[in-house]
Structure formats: C-alpha cells, structure tokens
Amino acid sequence: MADKIDFKKSMKALYAPPAGRFVEVDVPPLSYLMVDGAGDPNTAASYKSAVEWLYSVSYPLKFASKRELGRDYAVMPLEGLWWADDMSTFLSRAKDKWSWTMMILQPDWITAEMVDAAAAKASAKLGPRPASLRLERLEEGLCVQTMHIGSYDDEGPVLARLHDEYLPQQGLKETGHHHEIYLGDPRKTAPEKLRTVLRQPVRRLS
C-alpha cells in the first residue's frame, strides 16, 4: 500500500501562505465535496448541518479509498466560499447577510458514485441528504492569499487592505468568491491563535 498522502504538504503553496503579507498563487482545478447555505455560521442550523454532513461523508470516503483502492490520505480541513449581495457586509461582519458554500477537498480519484455510497450511509444517522451535497470541480486559477492569525472577526481589516490597497496597486480585479481555509479548530484553539488562509481569485486588468 502506498504511503498516506497529506495534501496540505504536497500542495504547501496553497495551504501555507505567509502571514502579514499577500502573495499570488496559481490554484489548479481541484475537486471538493460541497454543501451550500446562507446565514450566520454561528447561529444558522443549516451551517452546523452542512459541516456535519461534509465530515460524515469525507471520512467514509477516506476509508473506502484505503480499503478498496489501496490509497490512503489525510482528510483535509474545512474550507468555505463566502459572498453577499452587498460585499460591505464582510467588513461590517453582518453575518446574517452572508451566503456560503462549505467544502472539503477530495483526491482526484474520488468519484460521484463513491460520494453517493458514503452519503447513503451517513443518511442513516443524519437523515435526508442535503439537496446541494455534491462533488464539484472548482477552478480558481490566479489568486491572492495570506495567512490570517487570529479571530475570524478580526479578518475585516485584512480584507479591506486586500481589496482597497493591494489589488488596485497590483492591477488586479476580483473574479470569484472569497475563500477561507480553516487550519485551526475553534473548539480547541484560542481565537487569537487560529490560522486561516484568506484567498481571493483575481484577474489581471492588463
């Protein structure tokens, strides 16, 4: 059996940007298990359900891959795409106005059929499968990202610098949803020590 793969290490440029400064990175097309929703992640029942479903399907997928394909890997961290009709709500932290797609990266060899089988098992515990639960290829391409160390609620000034200063100065324009990668567990880590990759897909204006 092949060695266990940790994609955070094999794709270090995507998961370990520097803190305190922005860097550009080309993100290849990647497959994610996704669930869509809206509302404050701290209070919306749909958010808690989405995260529970993602992990309840991702771990059986890992075990099936190891058992059936002889390919083992570490389950990846939770990630999220975030957007709103009025993007200023990100700076004001009006979370009830946010829409989101929560997701977990999957290896390229994971198939929709494998997802269906894992979801069927999870539904025995969690109930009906969310309509938006799916395996989808995400193509972000050129992105700007940084490592934010601290509370999620302290991201506002970092995002303001990104959108109001860095992108205009570099001749870049946003093209996709704000993307976050959660490398810390808020249940076990002090807010000031949380590590979150903040990523923004962009295009060059000229």
TrEMBL record:
Pfam families: GyrI-like. Residues 25-202 form the GyrI-like small molecule binding domain. InterPro entries: GyrI-like (IPR029442), GyrI-like_CCH_Lin2189-like (IPR008319), Reg_factor_effector_dom_sf (IPR011256). It comes from the Bacteria. This is GyrI-like small molecule binding domain-containing protein. It comes from Mesorhizobium australicum.
